[in-house]
Design goal:
Number of helices: 4
Strand order of the largest sheet: 1-2
Structural class: mainly alpha
Number of domains: 2
Oligomer: single chain
Distance between the termini: 43 Å
Radius of gyration: 25 Å
Helix content: 40-55%
């Protein structure tokens, strides 16, 4: 049971009565201000401001993701150019989704399941690399690709980005 002596006013919202205090600095905080941490309720000043671990990307993970994207993009583009140079019509879109999955999953595994905008760009670049490798094998690097190539690449980019999205 609380008494009038136990009721305080929030330091950030002076019109709000509260009985809650920061577990570290004892500042009165209201439910709007409270930040729940694994060690208790904290005020916004005392709460940790770290990013989630899966969003922290150090240079080692960046390089591993980039290497996986290049390797997977080149391999997938090579298979696409050798086995299906003219595509499979509409079913080529399904193949593009599969290529994006392989590239995105390679980046995700190489970076220990990290995620974020930088890795999304790296995975998308791997899918675009697959398109250029396929065109280099087919002999028309900059030619207009009327055999579903652009749509397949778009599907691969979309799925690859989805694999490293948080």
């Amino acid at each position: 049971m609380t008494t009038d002596a136990d009721v305080f006013y929030c330091q950030r919202h002076p019109q709000v009565e509260t009985v809650l205090r920061c577990g570290r600095c004892e500042t009165p905080i209201c439910p709007k201000c409270v930040v729940f941490t694994d060690v208790g309720a904290r005020c916004p000043t005392c709460a940790p401001r770290r990013k989630l671990p899966q969003l922290e990307l150090n240079p080692i993970y960046f390089m591993r993701g980039l290497g996986a994207s290049i390797a997977a993009g080149a391999a997938v583009g090579g298979v696409w150019g050798i086995l299906f140079p003219d595509g499979l019509g509409f079913f080529t879109l399904i193949m593009g989704a599969g290529m994006g999955y392989v590239i995105g999953e390679s980046v995700s595994l190489a970076t220990n399941r990290k995620a974020g905008n930088i890795l999304q760009g790296i995975a998308a670049a791997g899918a675009v690399l697959a398109f250029f490798v396929r065109n280099a094998i087919a002999g028309d690097i900059l030619a207009a690709d009327y055999n579903w190539g652009y749509l397949v690449t778009a599907a691969a980019v979309f799925v690859a980005i989805g694999r490293v999205k948080f």
